[in-house]
Amino acid sequence: MKYPDIIDELYDIGAIKFGSFKFKDGATSPFSLDLRLIISYPKLLTKIAAALWQKISFQPIDRICGVPYTASSLATCISMMHDIPMILKRKENKDHGTKQWIEGFYNPGDRCLIIEDIVTSGNSILETIEPLQHAGLNIASIVIVIDREQGGLMAIEKQGFHVLPLMTVTDLWERLRFTGKLSQIDIDKAKKFVEHHQVEF
After folding, report:
1. Which of these, 156, 183, 187, 155, lies nearest to 171 by C-alpha position?
2. Cα 201 → chain centroid
3. Does the pLDDT at position 59 exceed 70?
4. Model confidence at 96: pLDDT above 60
5. H or E stretch covering 28
6. Which of 67, 77, 137, 196 could lock onto 49 through a cystine, CB 3.0 to 4.6 A?
7. Stated pTM of the model
8. Residue 40 belongs to a domain with what CATH number?
9. What is the C-alpha to C-alpha distance for residues 94 and 97, in angstroms, rounded to an integer?
């Protein structure tokens, strides 16, 4: 079972919830994943960052970039733990000053690690990659905390990038059922939602 302690802690802080949650596209999901909460739990944040680093520690990395905004805290944590410089891809371009998309120092050709918290459609990662590549950076690897298994990971890999997820929603269901925090009925609802809300690409 993958990272049972992390899953338990995410559930305990309310980052994993079950009920009825309406998305901005109008869809109603039986579960919610909100990793923005981890910024208030330093030990858990550090634990997740360490687990992500284990996935890619064998690769040479020159720069780290977290997809704004949630993954920026994970990128900062890894940067400080392993003394690897960060860069920041702005969510909105500045209309003053240098008007640049990327903050921080880098060299063209630098190998950049992309970090994301949750992948659904994969759009946020692809939108982060585009200006980085335009600036001459090479995408060395992409690591994510949770894959919602709705096709986003495949959409990214179709563009030629390899994505390493820490865990999937299936891993969450299995652990929470094992600990008695989730019923089979809840799991079936969650699986049905995921199956019926796949990314088209």
Report:
1. 187
2. 20
3. yes
4. no
5. strand 28-33
6. 77
7. 0.93
8. 3.40.50.2020
9. 7
CB 137 within 8 A of CB 149: no
The identity of residue 22, as a single letter, is K
Let me know the angle formed at the C-alpha of 23 by 22 and 26, rounded to the nearest 5 degrees: 80
| Overall average pLDDT of the 13-19 stretch | 96
Question: What's the domain count of the chain?
Answer: 1
Q: Which residues pair with 120 in a beta bridge?
A: none
201: in domain: no
Please write the tens of the pLDDT for every residue from 109-147. Answer: 999 999 999 999 999 999 999 999 999 999 999 999 999
Sheet containing 63-66: order of strands: 63-66, 111-119, 138-147, 163-168
What tokens appear for 178 in the block?
Answer: 């094992």
How crowded is residue 119: how many other Cβ atoms within 10 Å of its Cβ? 28
Domain that holds residue 183: 4-196
The residue length of the chain stands at: 201
Query: Does 42 fall in a domain?
Result: yes
Which residue carries 């009925």 as its tokens? 185
